[in-house]
Amino acid sequence: MISQAILNKLIQAVGKENVVSEKEDLMVLSYDATPGLSHTPDVVVYPTSTEAVQAVINIAREEKLPITPRGSGSGLSGGSIAVQGGIVLCLNRMNKILEIDEENLTATAEAGVITLDLANAVLEKGLFYPPDPASQKISTIGGNVMEDAGGLRCLKYGVTGDYVMSLKCVLPDGSVITTGGKSVKDVAGYSFKDLLISSEGTLAIITEITVRLIPPPQDKRTMLAYFDDIKTAGKAVSSIIAAKIIPSTMEIMDKTTINCVEDYVGIGLPRDIAALLLIEVDGHPAVVAEDSDKVVDVLNAVGATEVSMAKNEEEAFELATARRFALSAMARVSPSTLMEDATVPRSYMPETFAEIERLAKKYDLTVGTFGHAGDGNLHPTVLCDERDADQMKRAHAFFDDLYEKVLGWGGTVSGEHGIGIAKKAYLARQIGQGGVAVMKRIKQAFDPEGLLNPGKIFAEEQESSHV
């Protein structure tokens, strides 16, 4: 419970209309898109400027209140949940695109700008912002930076962090810094920009982001390939890359996912196949024509049962949209969906699919797998009911075993969703206690009082006081 005196300070700092303290309203911001995780904050504050963020941080420091930054709450690891109460600092009212610089090929936006809004705004200027997380219609640029979000196009174009040129942020002591800039080359001092990307709001509050833009591709072709065996689909992925072809998109859906998506959007996907690959090649028209022909040859060689080309741009958009609806489609058929973010070197894709199938049988679970097959980033999703304690125990055991294999193959416990609350226990497995110790020292240097997003990234036994 927060005192009226503190509420009055916050109201004076940001305005009454930007402070929420009623219990019913707070509950709406007590969770994100991660199932089974919910903590109600004491107050939610909506700053509308960097100066307002600075004022709130100063109040929090004076009152020893934790601050949890938040955008649209579309995260999948519990990163924006206020596990220790205090203040949720919701940045989605800082939603202005400040500049599109066509001469320097950059765009500058406040942290609360919706990803798709920025992409559409620069497209109107004949420019291209490639990162396209599946949540792009609701996720914010600030949230994308905090999790280093990926997307369907990241195989060819990279992830959010590859496009960040500059960040303005407020540090836990209330000071404001800008790191990076519009210069294409800049190696002056430590690269704070890169340290802050994917820091999940534990080091600073990012308020403005400058991203680089590129010219849009001149042409693209979209194709679907069907498979009777998901391991063959995995082999097709590694074979396409081995053929030195880098599609802009190479997405996979297994049979469970296909049927859920078809129930949801009804676009005519076959229900009896084991898996499909959605592949898009883009670039110069001559290269697109040549590469798409090569992709078809590889698909036929590895044993795809059918390969088809999208007839027009509308059909291509429809197919990509169907893939973006994968998680939503599965959420409709099950009370809970426990989705993870296992990422492996591409050469281990067939083994990963085989392991997912083996473990699903071992633990008697229904698992739908989809994801960014081209970069080895898979989202095995357990269809479950969080009210069933035994089923949830089996679901967590499934992922525990899977990550043991993933790490053994040189993979990672998170390709794009972050650590947050959900994956704290896995972090030390991947980077070791030495790596955790270094991260804790960095956290301590930035945030000695442990006010920013406490309870995230480090497992409880890894945390010292305040960190």
Give a topology summary.
Blueprint: H1 4-14, E1 19-20, H2 23-28, E2 43-45, H3 50-63, E3 67-70, E4 87-90, E5 97-101, E6 106-110, H4 115-123, H5 141-147, H6 154-157, E7 164-170, E8 176-180, H7 192-196, E9 205-212, E10 219-227, H8 230-242, E11 249-254, H9 255-265, E12 275-283, H10 285-302, E13 306-309, H11 313-324, H12 326-331, E14 336-339, H13 349-362, E15 366-372, E16 377-384, H14 389-408, H15 424-446
Parallel strand pairs: 2-4, 3-4
Antiparallel strand pairs: 1-2, 5-6, 6-9, 7-8, 7-9, 10-12, 10-13, 11-12, 11-15, 14-16, 15-16
Helix pairs in contact: 1-3, 8-10, 8-13, 13-14
Mean of residue pLDDT? 94
Radius of gyration: 22 Å
CATH class of the largest domain: Alpha Beta
Oligomeric state, counting identical vs distinct chains: single chain
Shape: globular
Quote the beta fraction: 15-25%
Q: CATH-wise, what's the superfamily of the largest domain?
A: FAD-linked oxidases, C-terminal domain
Number of strands: 16
Number of helical elements: 15
Coarse structural class: alpha+beta
What composes the largest sheet? Answer: 7 strands, antiparallel
**Terminal CA distance:** 23 Å
Low-pLDDT segments = 463-467
The CATH architecture of the largest domain can be named as 3-Layer(aba) Sandwich
Strand order of the largest sheet: 13-10-12-11-15-16-14
